[in-house]
Specification:
Elements: E1 5-8, H1 17-27, E2 31-35, H2 36-41, H3 44-50, E3 57-64, H4 73-92, E4 97-101, H5 110-121, H6 124-131, E5 134-138, H7 153-163, E6 166-170, H8 171-174, H9 180-187, E7 191-196, H10 219-228, E8 235-237, H11 242-247, H12 249-266
Parallel strand pairs: 1-2, 1-8, 2-3, 3-4, 4-5, 5-6, 6-7, 7-8
Helix pairs in contact: 4-6
């Protein structure tokens, strides 16, 4: 597997952690990413055995920071406490970043919700900085408005700049945006990780993700833009949905890693 490729445990959503680790071993994945419930519930010994003891780099962790940005202050206090715990555990495992969903709008305007998120996460910024863990937010489809407020890459950047944090670029969510090359160039100084999958035109079977190379996203061109802008991080495979399950999860990830690796090698990496 190309050394810049990471394999997300989301590719094996719902499977026991032991099975996820076995899949990583099958795939010879050297970089991997986790979901926060795995980090918060698995024992430290189990996680160390799966990661550091096996020579795997923990690239990033996906985390739902809050459920509802319009909720009570007590909800925000609990969210910060959970994130603080997660930061320390990720740091102990050598993880590089945590990328988040912000929480939903509730009845708030975008601007009100953005300010709520900025205020809510602010106390965690020095904790993350001292631990050497980057905090980021990702761009997601608008249908996740109950969980997140940043859907285009441009809105995600605006919120990240407002909150003083980083971004995770989810390519299958932003590939149709106007001015994408310019948005990528603007994002790279604060880009913690890039998530990769493909989209087949007309696919309505959510989550409609496909193996890179099977769909319409011009991934090689987008990788070139990322590299030209100075991106030095991981390309994290996040494959999920009916197409992936039909092919077989391990088989789909193996083929994705091969396809993305060939694209990166063709670009001189």
């Amino acid at each position: 597997m190309h050394p810049r490729i990471s394999v997300s445990s989301i590719c094996f959503l719902g499977e026991p952690f032991a099975d996820v680790v076995r899949h990583w071993e099958e795939l010879d994945a050297r970089r991997v990413s986790l979901m926060s419930p795995q980090v918060l519930t698995e024992t430290e010994a189990t996680l160390r055995a799966a990661l550091g003891d096996s020579g795997r780099q923990l690239e990033t962790i996906t985390h739902n920071f809050m459920r509802d940005l319009s909720a009570s202050e007590a909800h925000g206090t609990q969210a910060r406490a959970t994130l603080a715990t997660l930061i320390q555990r990720v740091a102990a495992l050598g993880g590089r970043s945590i990328y988040m969903l912000t929480g939903g709008f509730g009845p708030l305007t975008w601007e009100e919700a953005a300010q709520r998120f900025t205020n809510a996460i602010a106390p965690c910024l020095p904790i993350a900085r001292d631990a050497g863990v980057r905090l980021a937010i990702e761009n997601t489809p608008g249908l996740y408005g109950d969980l997140h407020i940043a859907h285009s890459l441009r809105d995600t950047l605006a919120l990240a700049e407002m909150a003083g944090i980083d971004v995770c670029i989810d390519l299958p969510t932003c590939w149709t945006e106007a001015g994408l090359k310019d948005s990528i160039a603007r994002a790279i100084p604060r880009c913690a990780v890039v998530q990769v999958s493909d989209y087949v035109l007309g696919d309505r079977s959510l989550p409609a993700r496909a193996v890179p190379g099977d769909g319409a996203i011009q991934l090689r061109r987008t990788f070139q833009w990322l590299l030209d802008a100075g991106y030095e991080g991981a390309f994290d495979l996040e494959l999920i949905g009916p197409r992936i399950d039909q092919e077989g999860r391990v088989a789909a990830v193996r083929r994705a890693a091969r396809n993305v690796g060939e694209m990166l090698e063709g670009l001189g990496l």
